[in-house]
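Hi again,

Forgot to attach this to my earlier email, sorry! This is the prediction with 2-phosphoglycolic acid bound. I've pasted everything inline since the attachment limit keeps bouncing my files.
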Amino acid sequence: MRTPFLAGNWKMHKTIPEALELVNALKGPLGEIKGVKKAVCPSFVALAPVAEALKGSDILLGAQNMYWEEEGAYTGEVSPLMLKGLCDLVIIGHSERRQYFGETDETVNKKIKAALAHGLDPIVCVGESLEQNRAGETESFVGSQVRAAFEGITAEQAKGIVVAYEPIWAIGTGIAATPEEANRIIGEVVRGTLAELYGDEIAQQMIIQYGGSIKPANVEALMSQPEIDGGLVGGASLKAGDFITLVEVTARVKGLA
Ligand code: PGA
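Structure tokens for the complex follow:
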């Protein structure tokens, strides 16, 4: 049985006081929902205060990005050593990082290896653009992103990596992929590629999230799909009530509550 996992990607939102307000509103209600892994991923500057606020809670803490070197003359970057001990996981290769900040399959792979080397659990994002989707290239593109991300990663390491399938055209647009299509791409392409790389037994254990306009209105349909093991949530993770609903519904439809 795969434990469903919902992570809130707060992106470039929330000042420190706002981040604390949100996490304090989430802590109690989310603590009561068992059987679902939950995480929040605030901005770098809010990580330390949010970590403090989360002490004693089962909500995991994640960063949204990091550089792969441990230290050095890399102005503005944050290293795995700085995150180690502060947070549990790190989002790597989000499409916004690929699109606006020049991240490539190669840098994504380096970051994954650096995260693993320092005991940070990566959430690795893949997903096709609207043009690729319309051109019928989703399967080949997403498959190649998965292969490139896992280049040189052992089967043992792969087990601890979460993949988030996020079609770029569904992110922040309000238009999610249909549950059936998200399920198909996750099952056939993402898990299918992982099975080619590591064998079916390991691929079946790996957590694969869907991301892109998950909200209270569509979460039940999405999480009812057997291949979708949770979600990476942007907009709806910024409101405590919405994120709590997403976790509650996931626990219920996955048969855990
Ligand atoms: P969204 O973002 O839920 O706002 O579409 C998802 C993401 O980018 O991870």
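The longest helix spans residues 179-198. DSSP finds twelve helices and eight strands in the chain.

That should be everything now.

G.
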